[in-house]
Amino acid sequence: MPSGFSGGDTAFVLISAALVMLMTPGLAFFYGGMVRVKSALNMLAMSFIALGIVTVLWVLFGFSIAFGPDSFHGLIGDFSMLGMRHIGMNQLSGTIPVFAFAMFQLMFAVITPALISGAIADRAKFSAWAVFIAFWVTVVYFPVAHWVFYTDNGKGGWLVDHIGALDFAGGTAVHLNAGIAGLALALVLGKRVGFKKDPMRPHSLPLVMLGSGLLWFGWFGFNAGSALAANGLAGLAFTNTQVATAAAMIGWLIFERIKHGAFTTLGAASGAVAGLVGITPACAYISPLGAIALGLVCGALCAWAISLKYKLGFDDSLDVVGVHAVGGAVGALLIGLLATGGGGSTAKGLFYGGGFAQLGKQAIGVGSVGVYSFVLAWIIAKVIQKTMGFRVSEEVEIAGIDQAEHAESAYDFSAVGAALSKALSPSAPATPAKTSAAPAETKVDA
Amino acid sequence: MPEMKIITAVIKPHRLDDVKEALQSFGVHGLTVTEASGYGRQRGHTEVYRGAEYTVDLVPKVRVEVLTEDDDADSVIDVIVKSARTGKIGDGKVWSVPVETAVRVRTGERGPDAL
């Protein structure tokens, strides 16, 4: 290996990449448990498909757009790494192979669009969703990752290198970005049938808890791994991730107990995720005590923010706006108050004698990513709606999207249900399933 | 004239084991149990999910059905009522209805012989 290579750093980043990969299935369960039985599979599939689409696009051009040398005022990378063709196996990015760096960053690009899916649960055509992911990551996530994450001695992304906005692991690029896109999609697609009228209880809170546990676990890769080295900075980021998440869970539960009179498991899971979101941008810049403050604020604020959709009348079904947009923005802005100057940056926040300078830079980061994401997501969604259509029909939505879009049912616990289903032929098309037309003697050995 | 009754009891799920045992020691040979949901005077309860409150009207219950000869019906009802009672609201109801006929599927026996 060339000089400068670190085996320890490489091992750490590869493992972190695998941890972050697991967050997308974790998110699928977190969301999947929250919807009703009839759309559980669709919710899982909306996250899983991101692993497919974004991975392929990342190799073809995504990595080059996001992390290629800057080609235009810090807005977009060049196209020198299209298809990952000219990357040598032993070529380094810092102390780790470029391939290790590229796979680590890929997992961020995968989970970001998956996060959006919660805003439009139960009602999006799967094909339209797949097309949305492809266009949105191409024109929004890849460039925004360049703005926020690509540093090159002052000649990298405009937010990180020109403005000096701090975002360690993606409070703006990932969470605010996804949350605001979710808002745009919820507005374009409209409300679920029966929103605010029919009960829409989560069908499996144990799945939600499982998902939030997997997210929490994977998030250590997300945040500590963003140090891109097995060093003290990774240790600080790891510590703050754990501390803020714990505090946010407590903050959410206290808010909930005061407002609604109960400590709910959904509140514990949601509070933990809100804390993970909030600490993401800040984990390398603040102290563990600062992380407690950030966590409590994020937990309580997000617990309040999820009520906005009922007041303002948009159906952000699984609270992507209330948790990810609000949590990401709050975490990014709090850097401007809580940055110690002793972590991953020498910039100090207001509470540490740095004045308002850093807070202003953070606000630019939050504002620019938020506005860009909203406008582009809205345009893409509108175009899809006008051309191929974005929503399933009302009948399909009421009957349950799983059957119409995936030709499957999530659960089969009923002996009666199993006895009523009849095998057609191994290669029969799933729809339309005309059981009456099938010859009675047709049998399939399972 | 029907010589049999079907006794239906809707009870709290956690009383099922006691009811089953009491019926067994009384000498009842068979019963049918189904999961049911419903409400009486106690109504339902409230649940909260991320701040959205839902009233859940239907409470989980268990429905027990027993076929008996006429002569045993009152005693069976007493056995069920005694073993299902907790004294709190929501303990459920028991009722009986005359049965025209009953057939044991395996043998074809009819009437009280089929019980």
From TrEMBL, chain A:
Biased composition (Low complexity): 425-440
Protein name in UniProt: Ammonium transporter
Location within or outside the cell: Cell membrane
Transmembrane segment boundaries: 12-31, 43-67, 96-116, 128-149, 169-190, 202-222, 234-255, 262-279, 285-306, 318-339, 359-381
Keywords noted in UniProt: Ammonia transport, Cell membrane, Membrane, Transmembrane, Transmembrane helix, Transport
Keyword Ribosomal protein: no
GO cellular component terms, A-Z: plasma membrane
A Pfam family per the record: Ammonium_transp
Subunit (UniProt): Homotrimer.
PROSITE patterns hit by this protein: AMMONIUM_TRANSP
Ammonium transporter AmtB-like domain: residues covered: 11-411
Family affiliation: Belongs to the ammonia transporter channel (TC 1.A.11.2) family.
Membrane-related topology note: Multi-pass membrane protein
GO terms for MF: ammonium channel activity
Purpose of the protein: Involved in the uptake of ammonium/ammonia (NH(4)(+)/NH(3)).
Species this protein is from: Streptacidiphilus pinicola
InterPro entries, A to Z: Ammonium/urea_transptr (IPR029020), Ammonium_transpt (IPR001905), Ammonium_transpt_CS (IPR018047), NH4_transpt_AmtB-like_dom (IPR024041)
Region (Disordered): 425-446
